[in-house]
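Posting for a labmate who doesn't have an account.
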Amino acid sequence: MKTAIVILNWNGKQLLEQFLPSVVNFSVNEAEVYIADNASTDDSIAFVQENFPTVKIVQNRINGGYAKGYNDALQHIKADIYCLLNSDIEVTENWLPPIISAFKNNAKTAIIQPKLLDFKDKTKFEYAGAGGGFIDLYGYPYCRGRVFNFLETDNGQFNDTTEIFWASGACMFIRSEVYHNLGGFDEDYFAHQEEIDLCWRAQNEGHTVAYVGASTVYHVGGATLQESNPHKTFLNFRNSLLNVVKNVPKNRFLWVVFSRLLLDGIAGIKFALELRPIHTWAIIKAHFSFYGNFFKFLGKRRTLQKKSNYNLHTSVVWQYFILGRKKFEDLR
């Protein structure tokens, strides 16, 4: 089962200096390593060519963000399994065999995520994926080990192998055939939550998404776009709404969209009361962008809604903010 580890890079020499050695050292004879470069203007590619001659380079013509960057690069990479890996991830010894074994043991499994821990505090789960992703009734994503901003300590509670709803784009393994049959990532997202859309579409086609806790990686998180950056707030709120329009089934569509707009408005008020008006404005801009894309995504929806994997009832907003339930195991 040929595996290609593909690291998307844009002016990321410092990250490559720090994290590429672990990827190369712990992937020898198990996978080929590629750098998919999004038209960098620094000397990161020269650094890789000089110091890591076994790493292959795929040069994209423009910086099209996460979605287009991978879509463009993966057209030129032949493998059975793609590992889409952020440049700010440190991998561990023997991280690949449990993943490959899981693919071999279940033909329906199309996408896999390992355990994501925080590079800055390796006892904690990391925000962007943790112990595997889920989505609530209103389209809000959360994870085992991470509900909103509450991060659990890793005590081995998620060392299992289990089905999940979405795998983190920070470290996502996917069968190449499935990736290309789905048309890859939706490039209208640019970045953030396009992996949730991809996983949702994969499940709509009968595939499953899995988490393999026997494989561990450490993620810096926010290395390319800090959590405090209002553009990240904009992308997360807008793209989450686009996921709803594109994927929620007809019988819940209007209710979920209306509820989400209302809940987002409450989130905007919360940011304002916390004296973070720049994030309130980011939500407002996200909604205007959502309105501008609404009919375009309705068109995409019509091509996808043969079936939808969406039978979820939990409101993570209600449980977290009203009932005070912070841990995944406490959610009902």
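Reply:
Got it, the structure tokens are right above this. The mean pLDDT is 93.
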